[in-house]
Design goal:
Strand content: 25-35%
Largest sheet: 9 strands, mixed
Number of strands: 15
Strand order of the largest sheet: 1-2-6-5-4-7-8-15-14
Order of helices and strands: EEHEHHEHEHEHEHEHHEEEEEHEE
Helix content: 25-40%
Bound molecules: N,N,N-trimethyl-histidine
Length: 341
């Protein structure tokens, strides 16, 4: 919990709280994750390591790709329904966002809340202190009636800090289908963590990608310009940069595979040849067969039914939901269920 370990910076309407164990994860966390992932069978690497400076830049580019419909579809839903999404509170709720990143889409909701209530306290949570500070500074400059308290911490620590500091009704936001990176049990654990931070009057606004034709899904994760391929391959470059790895990225191929049975798009890095790669910083020499893959990401796709199951298992119930005309993406408003789980 961000208490004594927390450092806090306050300037006018902007406060940044940095605390908890997450800041940062221990310096050898990446080496350890690479070591265990590449020694496992099948080989894997955790997708959270995509987002170094270069990876974050590439992800912003992905969001603008013609094939990557997720960002613009969710944004259109928020644009059309922001007022309804933030309506129904007696006074302005504290708006708490998990994984806020650059907070661009969130502006729709911030503006709607400012219009409806005249003032707002926005509480973004992100592991990256620099991204948090930059976006928070832009927001307070833009909106004179907005107050921002950012938490640079992991979700668990930050949510504990939020509950401790804000004794007012809250609207939690978890957008961008970020939930899709979690396997069902882990998604339920995360949703339970949020539910555990909620009071009966609080709400969770959750944005999720919907299941659809494989061709559309595979194109979204394997675009014609090759931006997603560079995003995936950047993980090998990052291992080279930070752990002295000897990966030759030209010897690996980016693949996006839709698994209908699991309702998810998997990203893989497939070795084009039989090879051995040294990673001194992780104490490793790893052999690859030709065609052998490293599984780097899952992006789960949902139906109304699987979302209902997630809500049930997490002790949450649906109050409202919005989708686009083509039913590509869905934004739902959940609250605590009446039965304890
Ligand atoms: C940020 C997890 C929602 O899964 O669609 C984009 C990440 N990976 N292209 C997604 C991603 C490849 C993205 N999320």
């Amino acid at each position: 919990m961000p208490t004594e370990a927390a450092t806090s910076l306050r300037t006018g309407r902007l406060t940044i709280i940095e605390g908890g164990e997450s800041v940062g994860e221990p310096p050898d966390a990446f080496a350890k994750a690479v070591r265990s992932g590449l020694r496992a069978r099948p080989k894997t690497l955790p997708c959270r390591y995509f987002y170094d400076d270069e990876g974050s830049r590439l992800f912003e580019q992905i969001c603008d790709l013609p094939e990557y419909y997720l960002t613009r579809t969710e944004d259109a839903i928020l644009r059309d329904h922001a007022l309804a999404m933030v309506a129904g509170w007696l006074n302005d709720p504290v708006m708490v966002e998990l994984g806020s990143g650059s907070s661009t889409k969130t502006r729709r909701l911030i503006e709607a809340a400012l219009n409806a209530y005249g003032a707002l306290h926005y509480v973004p949570i992100d592991v990256s202190r620099s991204i948090l500070e930059e976006s928070a500074q832009g927001l307070v400059k833009n909106y004179p009636d907005l107050q921002v308290t950012g938490f640079a911490a992991n979700y668990r620590d930050a949510l504990a800090g939020v509950v401790e500091r804000f004794d007012r009704p809250k609207l939690f936001l978890f957008l961008g289908s970020s939930l899709g990176n979690y396997e069902a049990d882990d998604a339920v654990d995360l949703l339970k963590l949020v539910a555990g931070s909620m009071d009966p009057g609080d709400r969770l606004l959750l944005g999720t990608d919907l299941d659809k034709a494989p061709a559309i899904l595979e194109a979204a994760y394997d675009d014609a310009q090759g931006v997603t391929a560079r995003f995936n391959l950047n993980l090998l470059d990052r291992i080279n940069r930070e752990l002295g790895g000897q990966f030759d990225r030209d010897q690996f191929e980016h693949q996006a595979r839709y698994r209908g049975d699991l309702r998810r798009v998997e990203m893989h890095l497939v070795s084009r040849v039989e090879q051995e790669v040294a990673i001194p910083g992780a104490g490793l020499k790893i052999r690859f067969l030709a065609g052998e893959s490293i599984h780097t990401e899952n992006s789960h796709k949902y139906t109304v039914e699987t979302l209902q199951t997630l809500a049930d298992r997490s002790g949450l119930v649906e109050e409202a939901a919005w989708t686009d005309p083509e039913h590509r993406f869905r934004v739902q408003l959940w609250r605590l269920g009446s039965r304890p789980i």
